[in-house]
UniProtKB/TrEMBL annotation:
Protein name: DUF3000 domain-containing protein
UniProt superkingdom: Bacteria
Lineage: Bacteria, Bacillati, Actinomycetota, Actinomycetes, Kitasatosporales
Length: 186
């Protein structure tokens, strides 16, 4: 938990602790984050670290990371049939780019579209992508995973979904979603 609390992500990512779910594991710690640029929310998410000292068969370990990441999209982008596979590869790619060892990844990528009617009919149609995932971070020295590095890879995923350029110079291997046309002001 100390590694999660002491993390310093890129300036556009605002992180704060939040209430963790109580029934998933004996111990849990949760963070919420938003990607904010020019006072506009571009993406947001939640990361939960679970720990069961007795282990969990489905996790194949004693720790589990669970996440939700979401962002609004241009409708044309949301219609791309490859979007779910690309978004899932962003998650696994963010973990691999930092050299993290993990197992048992699972999750969903969901596209949603909203059309407004009646008193809301003046709002333009909106599309959203949502990544829900979990994975087992491999334990390192002392039986504890490098949660700080996992948090950093999660922040990389958030930035990528938000459409921010890569933080590191010369990283042309990263393809990000373009920023949405009219982000909501905070």
């Amino acid at each position: 938990m100390e590694a999660l609390r002491g993390s310093r992500p890129r300036p556009q990512i605002e992180i704060e602790p939040t209430r963790a779910p109580q029934r998933l594991a004996p111990f849990a710690y949760a963070l919420e984050a938003a990607v904010v640029e020019d006072d506009e929310d571009l993406a947001d998410g939640r990361l939960v670290l679970l720990h069961d000292p007795d282990g969990h068969d489905a996790w194949r370990g004693t720790f589990r990371l669970v996440t939700l990441v979401r962002a609004e999209l241009e409708p044309e982008m949301a219609a791309d049939p490859l979007l779910p596979e690309v978004c899932w590869s962003w998650l696994t790619g963010a973990l691999q780019a930092r050299g993290l060892s993990y197992g048992e990844p699972s999750g969903t990528v969901t596209r949603a579209g909203s059309h407004y009617f009646g008193g809301l009919s003046e709002r333009p149609a909106a599309s959203q992508i949502e990544i829900r995932a979990s994975w087992t971070p491999r334990e390192g020295r002392g039986g504890v995973p490098d949660t700080g590095a996992h948090l950093a890879s999660w922040c990389d995923l958030l930035a990528q979904v938000a459409g921010l350029p890569p933080a590191g110079p010369g990283d042309a291997s990263v393809v990000t979603l373009p920023q949405r046309r009219d982000p909501q002001a905070r």
